[in-house]
Specification:
Layout (H helix, E strand, L loop, with lengths): L1 E5 L19 E5 L3 H6 L6 E4 L6 H9 L3 E4 L8 H11 L4 E5 L6 H9 L10 E6 L2 E7 L3 E5 L5 E6 L4 E7 L8 E3 L9 E2 L4 E5 L4 E7 L6 E3 L1
Parallel strand pairs: 1-2, 1-5, 2-3, 3-4, 5-6
Antiparallel strand pairs: 6-7, 7-14, 8-13, 8-15, 9-12, 9-14, 10-11, 10-13
Length: about 220
């Protein structure tokens, strides 16, 4: 199952999203992310959060449509997006695209990126999408086949320590079983040479950021 989650951050180029959605996508609104769905003329399958960014009129509309609404208390440990991601995984989503997770607030943007490391979310292929950019996580022992177009920018950022045994194929600056040091910028601004690249990691975590015209292509194995 594929789930599309709309968070309450900045939604870049929303007009381009409609064509990428599928009829059987499970649509979720993380609290104020509801505004993005409604602006696109769409309604979520579920609205989840403390609902502090949802208007009474919006709630009335969803209630009339019998939309599932899961309200949490305002004083909680999780953000609304974390709750939405956990909900999607618990309902069987194996692929999750998140829109509106970046921009506006640096604390929220960084927190949302680090959510990719959440142990309960690692069973799903999660991508944060912002216009022509996407962010995903590569864990140790995994290989990412990344689709795109020649000239797309690909950056590899170690998280929580060094990334050990990084090997790439199809990128301009090749790595062969090398170490990317945490806190260093060596992995920034690599370039896709063909329509796909492979990135493998032996130990650690890599945040993979791709910028290009084609978003959402690729798989982790």
């Amino acid at each position: 199952m594929r789930s599309i989650i709309f968070a309450n951050g900045v939604l870049t180029n929303p007009q381009s999203l409609a064509g990428s959605l599928k009829p059987d996508d499970f649509l979720a609104a993380a609290d104020g992310g509801l505004r993005h769905l409604l602006a696109l003329g769409l309604f979520p399958d579920v609205l989840i959060g403390d609902l502090d960014s949802v208007t009474p009129e919006q709630l009335k509309t969803l209630t009339a449509r019998k939309t599932e609404i899961i309200q949490h208390p305002a004083r909680k440990d999780e953000t609304d997006l974390e709750l939405a991601l956990l909900c999607a995984v618990e309902r069987g989503a194996t692929e999750i695209l998140v829109y509106g997770a970046l921009g506006a607030r640096w604390d929220m943007s960084l927190g949302n990126i680090l959510l990719l490391t959440h142990p309960r979310l690692r069973i799903a292929n999660i991508r944060l999408v912002d216009g022509n950019q996407e962010v995903r996580l590569l864990a140790e022992g995994e290989t990412l086949t990344l689709g795109g177009l020649p000239g797309d920018t690909v950056s590899l950022l170690p998280l929580g320590g060094d990334a050990v045994g990084v090997t790439t194929r199809g990128l301009e600056y090749a790595l062969a079983n090398e170490r990317l040091k945490f806190g260093f910028t060596r992995g920034l601004s690599n370039v896709l040479q063909t329509n796909s690249a492979k990135i493998s990691l032996k130990k650690g975590l890599l945040c993979v950021v791709k910028e290009g015209a084609e978003i959402g292509k690729g798989r982790v194995g």
